[in-house]
Amino acid sequence: MDVRWEEAGWERLTGRAGRKRLPVWDCTVGLVVGHESVLLVDPGSCVREGAQVRAEAERLTGRRVTHIAFTHGHFDHVLGAAAFAGAEVFAAVGLDALLAAGREELRQDAVRHGLAEAEATEAVDLLALPRHPVSGERTLELGGLQVLLANVGPGHTGHDLAVFVPGERETVFCGDLVEESGEPMAGPDAVPGQWPAALDRLLALGGGDALYVPGHGAVVTAEFVRAQRATLAARFGVSGA
Fold first, then answer.
1. Contact criterion met (CB below 8 Å) for 52 and 40
2. In DSSP terms, which residues pair with 27 in a beta bridge?
3. What distance in Å separates the CA atoms of residue 82 and residue 218, rounded to the nearest whole number?
4. CA dist., res. 103 & res. 113, Å (int)
5. Per-residue pLDDT reduced to its tens digit, 57-105
């Protein structure tokens, strides 16, 4: 156990990756540390929360966050991005245009889910849009560590991105394609008929022994992802193994 990470409320997953479950919406943020660069997976729900995550990440790694990956475009996963000045932001292709055109909808969704109106307005006004679209797979070199960004959706949304981290045990940050602390949420932007196939792509990416990090909840195994895939296939009437 890495006491520094544990004392800061972070869960160390491998030698190069860790994560934290943020309060209120139980949203996971991931941290991947190379010798030269640091990748954050989802920056939190508002500028205040993002600033707290940034400060903790800098204390834990000794350097600033240089890259951010949005797993999808929901408010609790993107609105902290303004706290990371200068970071390069990556997302599934098309999410930049969706966020740019849907700022008011994003703000209203955040307020509807309980974020203070002033904080929601600030975060949306300052939102750092992704400038690096991922249409298939893209490798990030973090210095002695190559991380794979994979556009595995659609499923939970039309723009789902997974982050694969190699190491002593492969780690896959799944976003809300996988949820452990509750039933997977299928909102109006979900693509239910393709969600099980997105989980197939996640499983192909990570394999049977990987750690799968859901957008909400405890870290799970491939067995859990396969079971959730079967549940979603039955729920949405999708045939196939």
1. no
2. 216
3. 27
4. 16
5. 999 999 999 999 999 999 999 999 999 999 999 999 999 999 999 999 9
Q: What is the DSSP string of the chain?
A: --HHHHHTT-EE-SSSEEEEE-TTT-BEEEEEE-SS-EEEE---SSHHHHHHHHHHHHHHHSS---EEE-SS--HHHHTTGGGSTT-EEEEETTHHHHHHHTHHHHHHHHHHTT--HHHHHHHHHH-----EEESSEEEEE-SS-EEEEEE--SSSSSS-EEEEE-SSS-EEEEEEEEESSSPPP--TT--GGGHHHHHHHHHHHH-TT-EEEEEESS-B-HHHHHHHHHHHHHHHT----
Task: Give me the sign of the Cα torsion angle 145, 148, 187, 80.
Answer: positive
pLDDT in tens, 121-160: 999 999 999 999 999 999 999 999 999 999 999 999 999 9
**pTM of the full structure:** 0.97
- Distance from C-alpha of 136 to C-alpha of 124, rounded to nearest angstrom: 27
| Residue 102 CB contacts under 8 Å (≥ 6 apart), including other chains | none
Whole-angstrom Cα Rg for the chain = 16
> In the beta sheet, which residues pair with residue 92?
134
